Amino acid sequence: MRIPRSWLFVPGDSEKKLAKGPETGAHALIVDLEDAVAPSAKAEARRVTRNWLEAHKRQVTMRKQVHWVRINAVDTGLWRDDLGAVMPGAPAGIMVPKADGPEQVRMIAAEIYELEQRNGIPNGQTKVLPLVSETPRAAITIADYATSPMPRLAGLTWGAEDLGAELGASRKRDAAGLWTDAFRYVRAQTLLVAHAAGVWAIDTLHADFRDEEGLRQAALAAKGDGFAGMLAIHPAQVPIINAAFAPSEAELDEAHAIVEAFAGNPGAGTLQLNGRMIDQPHLRQAKALLGID
Q1: Binding-site residues from annotation for Mg(2+)
Q2: What's the CA angle centered on 170, arms 166 and 174, to 5 degrees?
């Protein structure tokens, strides 16, 4: 599975918005059963989401967009019903909100395994992407993902809105527009632990979808810091995120040169390329950029 750069949330109870999802250009569409759906509409959202996934699952090999589902948090008691409803549609993965550490994610993964067997889905095909920061307890367990191997774990992502509410924070950014300490800590932990675990690091959304320049700067900063993609809450954000994370021609040329250099020297650990030293981390980064193993 290639790394999706843009991850767009779409309400699971809106047939109209789901119908437009494939046209947005988002690399990953997250059909949302959680925050975007009112409590009274949860059952309808499951029905709509399942039907939509069923209608699209046969196109998996042809499409460039992957379909994920954000289920409800474990403490709501709704998550098993969510999984039972949507797994017949074979989503690419499940986003876990308010993930309370690796043990909770493993519990959800075990349920996914059972549902894969029941629905004829290849074992391990359904990946998991936890939102690791939405409560203070969740935020202090981020480092545990680095030492808790989970085959289904596709990546880590984080969110600021729920954590801010839990903290009673009156601000999330300072006067210069930078994340304040708690949020900067969570973002850095998400980035570092994702790389330590060898999974995708996906940056949080830019809440003001009308602020195109702010989003562009946030997306460029995320790419520069080492994130692989970014969440989006509005279709207008998708092309900006895709453009920010797209590799430049110079980056692609350099990646090809690094791969070719090591291919020509298979036993080398370190090489010289254009006057600078390159080693195995450079090779891994180049392969990731090019989407090759």
Answers
A1: 134, 162
A2: 120
Q: Are residues 154 and 29 in the same domain?
A: yes
The number of domains in the chain is 2
The answer to whether residue 221 is domain-embedded is yes
Q: Give residue 59's pLDDT band: very low, low, confident or very high (50, 70, 90).
A: low
- For residues 89 and 54, is the Cβ–Cβ distance under 8 A? yes
| Average pLDDT over every residue of 91-101 | 96
Of 109, 112, 70, the residue nearest 87 (C-alpha): 112
Positions at the binding site: 70, 134, 162
Q: Which domain holds residue 255?
A: 250-290
From the number of C-beta atoms within 10 Å of its C-beta (0-12, 13-18, 19+), residue 151 rates as exposed
Give the pLDDT mean for 215-231. 96
Annotated binding-site ranges for substrate: 70, 134
